[in-house]
Amino acid sequence: MSLVETIQDKYNELNTFAGNGLLGSMREKAFEKYNKSGIPTSRHEEWKYTRLTSLANKNFELNATAILPSDEVLNSIRLQTEYAAELFFINGVFIKEISSFQNDAMVVLPLNEAAESEHKNYLHQHLNQSSKYMKDGMNALNAAFTANGLFVLIKKDKVVDKPIIIYHLTDTTDDNVFVQPRSLFVIEENAQVQLIELYKNNGLQESFTNEVIEIAVHENAKLEYYKVQDETENCHHVGTTHVQQVGKCFTHCVTVTLNGGTIRNNINMILEAPNNEGHLYGLYMVDGKTHVDNHSIVDNVMPNCFSNELYKGIMEGNSTGVFNGKIYVRQDAQKTNAYQSNKNVLMSDTASVNTKPQLEIYADDVKCSHGCTVGRLDNEALFYLRARGIDEKQAKALLLNAFASDILEQVKPEALRTYIGKKINERLNIDEL
Amino acid sequence: MLSIQNLHASIEDKKILNGIDLQINAGEVHAIMGPNGSGKSTLASVLAGRNDYEVTYGSVEFDGVDLLEMSPEERAREGLFLAFQYPIEIPGVSTTNFIKTAVNETRKHRGLEPLDAVAFLKLMKERMKLVKIDQSLLSRSLNEGFSGGEKKRNEIFQMAMLEPKLAILDETDSGLDIDALRIVADGVNTLKRADNAVLLITHYQRLLDYIVPDFVHVLYNGRIVKSGGKELALELEERGYDFIKQEVAEEV
Ligand SMILES: Nc1ncnc2c1ncn2[C@@H]1O[C@H](COP(=O)(O)OP(=O)(O)O)[C@@H](O)[C@H]1O
Ligand SMILES: [Mg+2]
Predict the structure, then answer these.
(1) CATH 3.40.50.300, domain B2-251, yes or no
(2) Do A399 and B93 touch (CB under 8 A)?
(3) Chain A contact for B96 (CB, 8 A cutoff)
């Protein structure tokens, strides 16, 4: 059975099982929307270069529960670091039992419990805000199946001094799986948090992840968000990170793609309050047949906001890349400062990148800049290093490492930076940094 | 040590070197002078192995082996060093790491153990003193934001670290003030031994007051048109390159 058919088949069953209430009505509306738009094809303007059709026609299991992995597997994916909370999604389902979050700075609940709790107003306010920007079927599809998600509240004035780590493990030992993690984070006034999402997989069958994470950041709060994709080629991924900067606040988001099959990352930064500041960084370093597509939206709604965006790509083998950076400056958003840059290095003749800035500016007093490059490693630099006795392969590695370093520097939690740095060096065959 | 015979080279079908003959023995200092565009940097680049240039004729032997067959890194490991006329900036590559990698690659090639961190730092400190280069420069990215003079000094520092058999200095003197020039010259003189050699490319005789050459060659239109002792440099200084151009014209 194709995924498209499985979705129809499973919807009623899962929807009934998940109950009514706030999530129930969201599911219903979303399923209607999904049925209208379906899984996007390359005819869809936003999906021109990222093809999902063959995945939609493939057989994937879709389950509301997951089999728990062994401790050994869990240990193998853990970062070597202290944490404020460690939260596990196994095949898209948040598993409270193996997560740990004893911390008085935060509230952690399964999303369906949160919908019935004293925090349900936050769900009314922030859940599914991403659908205003993501009009395609994938976003609706996630909402249509939202039940076993995650709700995290960082309490007012709390500074969480160690990272919160979300591990997404896709287990494809037995079957192809379609998984849909869903999370809502609310960062209250004056709170500060570092959030890490690490994607890992286990098994040789294929996985197709369709994630939505929404993060609402309130007045004077500070968010650092890291999404790291370290799965193998049999894992496909469509994900949306929706950051809603409700009050004047500071956000810093980094997306790192180390490997995978067909990947589409959407990141939205909505600057809803005056004087907001947001930073977006990305690094993708892929080879083989990996396809990686980063779509970003920076929406300047109010005046005096600042945003800076830098994405860098290293493309080897037959890999293909897409960068699409939208910047909206709304009519009221005078004195906007918005910067965007995308730089790519092609390491083979068969790798390619399609990069496109898209600026829509409706205010007159703004400073915006964008730039993109797709090129080879600098020959002059290569020669300089070789002329000092460094062989060609190592010289290339040094230059690529240097190229990646300005994104790596943006990864503030040391354990994560070390983890990514090691992966990069392994790929480049460098012994030490 | 270096034996260049009838070397012709071109770039994009444009002939630049038109038959160069040059013999450099261990212990010697040679200077190549010549007007802008005569092919000095091209000669240096061809010797170092830059692949933009095509060698169309001739041969180069370095300690008895065919230099032109070797990759740039092999040449460097064999002991050929080029101090670039325009050292480029490489952001993100740490100067210290880069030099450590270079030193250890060369040591490996010579069958020596790599220097550990302590030994490397010790060597670095010692050679830093020699060229009076500041630690703060070396902890930055390679040449990034260095002034012209700092870049040149960094070249000589790298030379001091790598201890080449043959050092080719391409206009290392230009853009240096007199103090910096003296420091660079002192460095080169200190490193000079009976078993290595230096090829100075310059178009001012000024440098040659500090590093005294055994031979001076004049390069013009891709050929060495005149060779002599150090007094040739003084003559050029006095009379300019025009008399050379005239002499060449008369020969034809
Ligand atoms: N990459 C290049 N492409 C085309 N012409 C070049 C290139 N490099 C050097 N040339 C030409 O070769 C000639 C010699 O240049 P160069 O070796 O730099 O001279 P010098 O160092 O003596 O000033 C000049 O006419 C210069 O324009
Ligand atoms: Mg020159």
Answers:
(1) yes
(2) yes
(3) no
